[in-house]
Amino acid sequence: MPIPTDTNLPPRGLTGGVPADGTLVQRESLRSLAKGISLFRLTYISQGLQVKGYLAVPDAIMPVPGLIYCRGGIRKVGMVRKRRIFSMARRGYAVFAPFYRGNEGGEGREDFGGEDRFDVHHAITLMQSLPEVQSGLVPLIGFSRGALMALLAAKECEGAGLIVVWGGVSDLLDTYEERVDLRRMLKRVVGHPRKQAECYERRSPVCWVDAIRVPVMIVHGTADVQVSVEQARKLGAALERAGKEYKMELYDGLGHRFPKEDDERALDAIFGWITSKRERVEVRDR
């Protein structure tokens, strides 16, 4: 099946003249520096907003499995790196990485796991509609703040598949305490941790692991100074108490971002786990 290269697509899924959430409204072919991988910038609808993201597709017999990469950071900090999604696409997956609302020409304003979580929810719908992506549940990899986005999808979206939490935030109140440099942003975007504690709890997976319906893999460097490894251990302990299926891999001495060789080693482990689990989860949820 050839990969579509349309630059403007007619809206699908119209409801009263307004494109439905998850509708693809534009596909722009971009130059790819990765051999054997095609790159696109997609625009889709999320809560009536036009949101953008990168899609990397391996040159293979279509369709291929789909996967969503949830970036960390906020706004320009932690923006999606093409090299990151190329590394994932080389493992045989069509990888979509939403920028979240308000970024790279997208509409709206992101809010760190609040309303912008719907940008991931509707990215799942988008992926399930793409002709080059296999049908079924869509796995998600959440890096840093992106872990909140991925786990919120696992809590709230039937289409969410396996979840990988990589260097992930699991308790936003802990992040507020750990990261003095983020406190001003968190107060502005989320609220005061005492006055609006519920806003932090809604974004903290350790508070609602009972609602997570799919297996979770936790990957973390023990020397991470941006998101403490204790957040990984805290999430693992919560999943254990809740009787949820999970796997934890801690990388001794590594920080928030892994060196290239270790990064590839971690990706091998992650995609090995996803591949081994994906078929069983699909069969169970049919």
TrEMBL record:
It comes from the Bacteria. GO terms for biological process: proteolysis. This is Prolyl oligopeptidase family protein. PANTHER family: DIENELACTONE HYDROLASE DOMAIN-CONTAINING PROTEIN-RELATED. Residues 83-274 form the Peptidase S9 prolyl oligopeptidase catalytic domain. GO terms for molecular function: serine-type peptidase activity. It holds the Pfam family Peptidase_S9. The lineage of its organism: Bacteria, Bacillati, Bacillota, Bacilli, Bacillales.
